[in-house]
C-alpha cells in the first residue's frame, strides 16, 4: 500500500446509460447488486460485502462516465489534494455534502487524460441487511453476486503520462506494467491498496486512440465458480460476452467480460487476483516476449488492439452530450451538472 | 441400471405444507426452482435441467407427502405394475390423465412401509425457457439453483422389508447398504438408474420408530460451490441448517441439509454422487467398523439416531394411525383428494 | 440406458505412444492417474473412482490406438456379439484371458469406420487404496485428479454409417446429434449408459477427411474447479492447451482440451455433463441455426473444421492405408501385437 | 493498513517438530509446499504465490515454535524497533545475516505473552520456477497447494495485554474482536496489511490457560474448492481433521483445520477472507449475542473452550528443549513467567 497516498481506495463509479431500465436489469438482476437508493433519476446500487452506502450509481443519459470516485485518506488529505491539484493546473470543482446520497463534501476534476474523478472523505455506511455482523448485504440472492467493486481499467493516448498523473497527484503505485523492449509504456496496473490494481491505465488502441475512455469496471466475487455461474447467466440472458472465462497472467484474475446491454459499458466479473504487502515491491515488467502469457495465462487468446470484441471502449465524456462533454470548459461544464 | 425394472426414474414429489407461502419462498426464492403452473391450490415447480414439466408440487395442508412419483418404463410396464401390485395385495387407485398438470393416466398406492407412491408414464415436457437447446430452464437466476430432483430418503420400522418391496415390486437394485456384523439391514441405497441411489430407505430411529416417514428429498447441483452458496443463502434467510457442508462416504455426495420453513420437510441440496455402470455391481456393505466414515467422509460428525437435528423425520400421511401405519382407508383418502 | 445393449460401458483405452516416458509424465504426474501395473512394456493406469483394474494402457510405438475397450453386458452377451459381428462380415479376433492384466477372454475387431475395438466381460477389480470403502484410489494426490474415464470422441468419413454400426452392432443410442437442415449427420453423441455420451462420432474434417481417427479421450472430474486447476498445471508444464476452459452446449460438459506431449493424442479433462434417464429420450438435433451454441455455450469460440488446434486428430491404426482405412490384414496385425 | 507500523507483513514461521520426516510428508506431499533449501538440519519450504524465499522452516526438536517472523517496513524501521523494544524492557537478540537462508540481519525477542518473534528486513526472493512472471512457484503440483502463508492464531492468558503489545510495539490494528457485554476482550483479529487479520490473539482456554501458545498457522488457497480438496486428501492420509469444512463469521474465512502428524501443530487450510481498505475502519465487536455466528457462519458448530478437538494448543517454547529455547535474555524472560 502507499502509506502517503492522498486517497485510500476506489469507492464508486457513476455511469450514464441511455437505457437505465436495461442497465438496472443487468446490474440488479444478472450481476445481482442491491438497489439501495434513488434520487433525481439516479439509482444507487451496492454489492454484498461493501462497507459504503453504494459502489455504483446509474444515471440516464448518453453512454458515459460521470465520475470515478476515490475515497480520500482523511478529511485533511481531501483538502490538501484540492490545493495540490490546483497548484498543478487542474480545475477543481467543489461539490457540497448531499450532492450524492450518503456522501460528504467532495471535489471533482478531469485528469489530463480526460477521465472524470471525484474524491470524497465522508460516506454513509451501508444498511445492515445481513445477519452476519461484518457483512452488510445478503450474499447470493440473485445473479453472480459479487462481493465488492474492485477496480477500473481506463484508456488514453499516452499511458505513461496517465500513469504519472495517477502516481504524482493521487499516490497510486505501479505494480505491473507492459513496456516493449524499445517502446513506451503501453499499460500499467496501479494501486493505493494492497490489491495488485485499483486502476489499470492502458493505451486506447487504434483506430480509436483517444483520451478519456473507459475499458471496464470490475466487480470481484468470492470464488471462481461465481464467475462460471455468471457466464451461464449472461449467455442465457443474451448479454454480450466479450471474453471468458480465463485467468489473466497480469493480476492473476479469473475473468469474464460482458457488456451492459443498457449502456454498452464493459464490466468484468472476476475472482482471485493478487495482493502486494511488501513496500519495496518491484513492479513486474511484461514485454513482447511474454505479453501473451501476461494477457491470458489460461483461457481464450487475447491481445489488445487486435480488433476483437475487447477493443472498443466507451467514452467517459460523450461528444454527443454537451452536458457531459469536456473541452476547454470542462470544469465549468462539470460544475453545471 | 436395472434393465427389467417397471419404473425408470424418480419423477416428482407432491408435498403438503401448512404454510404454502413460506414453502414457496423457500423453494422458489432460496432454492431457486421455477414456478411452472398452478391448479386447485397446488403450485408446480421445476429445476433448470429437468426434462419433465415439474419435479415438485406443493399443496396446502398439514405437513405430509401426497406421493413420491416414479415414471414407468413404458405404458405397458405401467399396466403390468398395477396387475402385479394387486396380485400382491396392494390396493391400487387409478388416477385419470389430467389429475396433475401434464400427467397422463397414473396409479397410486401405499407401500407396506406406509409410503404413498404414484406411477405414471406420460408427462408433458417442460417449457423451453433457455436458449440452450438441451436445457429447458434458465440456470442460476436465483438461489442455489439445482439441476434436477435427484432422490428421496424415506424411513420405516423394518428397512429390510422396505428394501424387498422396492426391489421385488418396483425393480430397484441395492447399491450400498448398512448392516452391522450380527444385525439386520439398517439402511439401503437403491436405484433403477445408474445413480448410486434414487431412493434410500432407512430405519426411522428411536424414539420415533414409525413407518411412513420421509427423511428428505434431494436436489442435485452442477457444482459443489453451488452447495456452499446455498449455505450462505439459507443461513442469512434464517432457514434451519441441519447438517452441512460435508461429503458423505456412502454415495459420495457433497451435502447441505435444510428444513423448509413452511412445512418442516427436510431438503438436501447436494452435488456430486456416483454412478454405477456395471450390471454385476456388488453392493457395498457398511458396518459398525466403518459406518462413521460412511456417514461423513469429510465434514461434521453425524450418526443417525444420535438425537441431533438430523433425526426427526416428517410423516408422509399425517392422518395415519398412531403406529405410523396408514389406516385401511388411506388409499381412498388419497383418491379422494 | 439401452436395456438390450451387448455392452454396458466404456472400460479402457490402450494407446500407443512414441515416447512412453513423456506420456507417463503427462498421465501420471499432470493428469494424476495411478500406475497400477506393467507387463511387456505396457503401463496400466487408473483414476481414483474407477471400479476396474485400469482405464488406460500405454504402449511404446508410433502414435495410435490399439483398442477402445467396451465391457460386455454379460458373458453371454460377449459370445453373442462375436457371432453377430461375424454374421455381419466383421473379422473378429479372440484374445485369451490374461492377454491384458486383469482381463478375461475378449474379442477384438475393427469397425467399418476403421476404429479398433475390444470387448471383454471379466475384469479384475482395482486395488483398494482408499480408506473410503466405495472408492478404490486415493483422490487428489497429484495433478487434476479425475474420477474416471468417461468417453471417447472418434472421427471418420461418414458419421451416419459410423453411428449405424455403433447402434446396430453394439447397442449405442443416439442422445444428441448435429445435422444441418439439408445435409447429412455430421456428428452424434451416443451412449449405452445414462451418460449423455460414452462415444461421440464425428466427421473427420477436411483436409484430413479420413477414417479411423481419434479426436480425444476424456476423463471426468468431481468438480469444475478441478478442470480450472488442470489449466494452470498444464500451462506451467508447457503442455499444449487446444481449447479451454468452457462449457459445451451439446453434452453440457465443462472442458479443457490438451495434448499428451508424448503421443500427440488429445485428452479432454472435464466435469459435469448430463444424464438421460428416460427410455423415450428424444435425441436433441443441432443444426446450422444453433451449432455455435451447441459447440460452446460459455467459453472460447470453436467450430470444427475451422482449421484451429482442435482440428487435427490422431490415427488409430498408423499402418493403415493412405485412405485411412485399415488394410485387410489389420485384424491380424492387431492380433499379433 | 497501518501506515506507520514498524512491520509490513507476516513473513515466515519456524516450527520445531519431533518427527521432521512426518512433518515434511505433511507439508510437502499433502499441503503441497515446495522444499526450497536445507541447512543445519532445517528444511525450508514455500507456497507457490509467495515472493520471499520461504514461509516455513522445519527443525527437528520437541514440538514448539522457534519464531514467528515479521518483515520490517524498512531497514530503518527494523533498527527503530529494536530500540523501542529495549526501551520497553523487552530483551532483544540480534541475529546476523545468513543465520537463516536468504535472510539479512534480524532481531528476535519474546513478547510478554511468551511468543517468540523475529523481525527482518532483507530476504532473498524465491526462485522463479513458474513460466508465469508474477508467480514464483508452479501451482497445483501436489496436495491442496495454497498460495501463501496468511496468518497465525496465538493464545495467551490475557488477550487484552497481548493485543496491546501487538498494537503499541508492532503497529497491528484491531479489525474484529470478541468481548462479552460485561467482560474482558476474549480474542482479537489484527493486521498491519489490508487483510482482516495477519495475527489473531485469543485466550488459551481452560484448563490449559497458559501463555506462549500457538493455536494454528494458516495458509490461504486460491479457491474454496482447494479447501474441499484438502479435506479428501487429509482424510485419506489419516491426518486428524479438527474442524471442517465451514465458513467463519469473523474473518469470513472458509476453513479446514488439521494437525501436522509430525508435530501436533494445527494448520488451517483456508480460502477467502476479507480486506480492509478504509483507514477509519471501525473494529467489529462480537459478543455473547452473536458469537456463535461469529465463530461459524456456515458449517459445524464450534465454540472455543468447549473441550473439542479445536481446544488444545501447542506450546511455542517447550520447557524441556534447551535447543529450542531462545538465547540467555529470552530464557530469563521466559523463566520469569
Written overview of the protein:
The structure is a homotetramer of 337-residue chains. Chain A has 337 residues and is an alpha+beta fold. The first copy, chain A, has two domains: 7-126 and 319-332, 2,3-Dihydroxybiphenyl 1,2-Dioxygenase, domain 1; 148-315, 2,3-Dihydroxybiphenyl 1,2-Dioxygenase, domain 1, CATH 3.10.180. Chain A is built from six helices and 18 strands. In chain A, the strands form two sheets. In chain A, strands 9, 10, 11, 12, 13, 14, 15, 16, 17 and 18 form a ten-stranded mixed sheet that branches. An eight-stranded mixed sheet of chain A has the order 2-3-4-1-5-8-7-6, with helices on both faces. The longest helix of chain A is centred in the N-terminal third of the chain and has 13 residues, at 75-87. Chain A binds chain D through residues 1, 3-4, 8-9, 49, 51, 71, 73-74, 131-135, 176, 193-195, 222-225, 249-250, 252, 271-272, 274-275, 277-279, 281, 284, 286, 290, 293-294, 297, and chain D through 1, 3-4, 8-9, 49, 51, 71, 73-74, 131-135, 176, 193-195, 222-225, 249-250, 252, 271-272, 274-275, 277-279, 281, 284, 286, 290, 293-294, 297.
SSE topology:
The structure is a homotetramer of 337-residue chains.
Chain A: E1 7-17, H1 20-30, E2 34-39, E3 42-46, E4 56-60, E5 64-72, H2 75-87, E6 93-95, E7 106-110, E8 116-120, E9 148-156, H3 159-170, E10 173-178, E11 187-191, E12 199-203, E13 213-221, H4 224-236, E14 241-247, E15 253-259, E16 266-272, E17 284-286, H5 291-295, E18 314-315, H6 330-336
Parallel strand pairs in A: 1-4, 5-8, 9-12, 10-17, 13-16
Antiparallel strand pairs in A: 1-5, 2-3, 3-4, 6-7, 7-8, 9-13, 10-11, 11-12, 13-18, 14-15, 15-16
